[in-house]
Amino acid sequence: MKIGLFGFGRTGKAVAQTILLNEHFSLEWVVKKNGNLNQRSASEFLGIDTNDKSTIYSSENLDFKKLIGENPVDYIIDFSGENGIYTYGEAARENKTKIISAISHYSDKEIKLLKSIAKDTTVFWSPNITLGVNFLMYAAKFLQKIAPWTDIEIIEEHFKGKKGVSGTAKKIAENLQLNEENINSITAARMEGKFYLIS
Fold first, then answer.
1. Sorting pLDDT into bands at 50, 70 and 90, what band is 11?
2. For burial by CB atoms within 10 Å, which of 42, 55, 117, 155 has the most?
């Protein structure tokens, strides 16, 4: 099964590693935002010995129609951002490429586009695709039931470029019947180790 991956952040790298280590899958290419790893191999970068192409491309000035035409895949897995769908959506529709999107938040415009694409190919979207987040939501709801008097606040940490509250935090708040005012977002540049200032 041939796979193309959008997004090569922390989660994207973990997904790429899982694909590369599975003999039933082949990672054909990776598309990431900037060009600092352009034309390198994801398998080489991650130190995994495999025959997968896993070529990394920058989304800047990328002719995606050409890429998927020359390197067709069965699935596109998206861990990039809400705008990624505009890069690959129509080409995936034309090529009947299945889409697995793990984007935590889409606007109504992107959701409408996904539903439109789903008329021609399979689209699976889960804003909370990771096991850890789903376990967290289940555990939080359980704890809320046994201690309903407890005040609940959601604190999330993001890299500096992240804008606004994440869709995951909103979904957790929704599951706990909390307002968005109960969500506190911390954004900071990523460094070795962590530093918290609580005032």
1. confident
2. 42
What is the mean predicted confidence (pLDDT) over 155-184? 76
Query: What is each CA distance from 8 to 34, 78, 121, in whole angstroms?
Result: 10, 10, 24
- Across the range 61-76, mean pLDDT stands at 93
Q: What's the residue count for the chain? A: 199
pLDDT in tens, 37-68: 888 999 999 999 999 999 999 988 889 999 99
Domain 131-188 coded CATH 3.30.360.10: yes
Burial code of 165-195, b = ≥16 C-beta within 10 A, e = fewer? bbebbbbbbeeeebeeebbeeeeeeeeeeee
Which residues 6+ apart lie within 8 Å of 75 measured at CB?
A: 1, 2, 3, 4, 97, 98, 99, 100
Global pTM value = 0.72
Q: Where, residue-wise, is CATH 3.40.50.720 in the chain?
A: 2-125
Nearest alpha carbon to residue 177 among 142, 141, 134: 141
Amino acid letter at 73?
V
Residue 117 has pLDDT above 70, yes or no: yes
